[in-house]
From TrEMBL:
Monomer. Associates with 30S ribosomal subunit, binds 16S rRNA. The gene is rsgA. GTP binds at S114, K115, A116, D117, G166, Q167, S168, G169, A170, G171, K172, S173, T174. Pfam families: RsgA_GTPase, RsgA_N. SUPFAM superfamilies: Nucleic acid-binding proteins, P-loop containing nucleoside triphosphate hydrolases. It is found in: Cytoplasm. This is Small ribosomal subunit biogenesis GTPase RsgA. One of its GO terms (molecular function) is metal ion binding. The keyword Lyase does not apply. One of several proteins that assist in the late maturation steps of the functional core of the 30S ribosomal subunit. Helps release RbfA from mature subunits. May play a role in the assembly of ribosomal proteins into the subunit. Circularly permuted GTPase that catalyzes slow GTP hydrolysis, GTPase activity is stimulated by the 30S ribosomal subunit. It comes from the Bacteria. Belongs to the TRAFAC class YlqF/YawG GTPase family. RsgA subfamily. It comes from Lactobacillus amylovorus subsp. animalium.
């Protein structure tokens, strides 16, 4: 009997595919996980036990960094956030929702504008101007398809797990198919009545890319921000958090407090007005404890 460690890269009909130093091992989880109400997730670092007959069992889950999404991916170090220029239409509000959600989850994000070739130059210029602000506050931004195809594999560090995220129909599976030609992910058309894509990804699977892994996940139709604590929301807006060091009052919520640096920068046009508007909308959503109907 021997023990080996590896990363869960897929879940198929109750079996876990674990990539180890010796290759991929298909294994089942021990019943102890059901008793503890635990379930291994794709991305988990695990220990497997292989007996003398070649039978293998998943016996231990290593401590997780995080666990995000449904179905879940564990130990995500970075998100490649795919936001479409059109079909579905570009939305700063949706972009902010994703960025705040992942900031809350302590996961770094890189933005990729998909379908940029499907809109006219004036509209693209307008979108790029908005995205330049996000680049300024610290988010890497890609607006060129060839750049993202070449550079993303170079950015994924050893054993890192990156995941694609974005609304349904934004082009995540199409991008994955180009990044990893043997992925063969299904792609789907847009539902014009809802201005959103049809879900084409049904499961989570990790694909080897660069020195680490890239995961494709089912598209998000909505993100629930209500579990975020209201007084902590402002800390997930990176430029608000930086500016708050100069606020007159500690714990300033950037509403009507005197000596607020965030409001000062907003008035000077140094903070994007749509960001502050989205901040206020998220505060209302969290205080009411429900996602707005139009975002469901």
């Amino acid at each position: 009997m021997k023990l080996a460690q590896g990363t869960v890269i897929g879940l198929i009909a109750g079996y876990y595919d674990v990539e180890t130093a010796a290759g991929i091992v298909r294994t089942r989880a021990r019943g102890v996980f059901r008793q503890k109400k635990q379930k291994p997730a794709v991305g988990d670092r695990v220990e497997i036990q292989i007996d003398d007959k070649g039978m293998s069992y998943l016996v231990k889950i290593m401590p997780r960094l995080n666990r995000i999404g449904r179905p879940a991916v564990a130990n995500v170090s970075h998100v490649l956030l795919v936001i479409s220029a059109v079909e579905p239409d570009f939305s700063l509000e949706l972009l902010d929702r994703f960025l705040i959600f992942f900031s809350w989850q302590k996961v770094k994000a890189t933005i990729y504008l998909s379908k940029a070739d499907l809109i006219d130059d004036d509209k693209l210029s307008e979108i790029k101007k908005s995205l330049a602000y996000y680049q300024e506050i610290g988010y890497p931004v890609f607006t060129d398809y060839h750049d993202v195809q070449i550079k993303i594999p170079e950015l994924i560090g050893k054993d890192q797990i990156w995941t694609l995220a974005g609304q349904s129909g934004a082009g995540k599976s199409t991008l994955l198919n180009h990044l990893k030609e043997d992925a063969h992910q299904a792609t789907g058309e847009i539902s014009t009545s809802l201005n959103r894509g049809k879900h084409t990804t049904r499961k989570v699977e990790l694909f080897k890319l660069g020195e680490g892994f890239l995961a494709d996940t089912p598209g998000f139709s909505s993100i629930d921000l209500t579990p975020i604590k209201l007084n902590e929301l402002c800390n997930y807006f990176v430029e608000f958090k930086r500016a708050s060091q100069k606020c007159k009052f500690r714990g300033c919520q950037h509403l009507k407090e005197p000596g607020c640096e965030v409001k000062k920068l907003l008035e000077e046009g140094k903070i994007l007005a749509s960001r502050y508007k989205d901040y206020l909308a998220m505060r209302t959503e969290i205080s009411e404890g429900r996602i707005p109907e139009y975002l469901k």
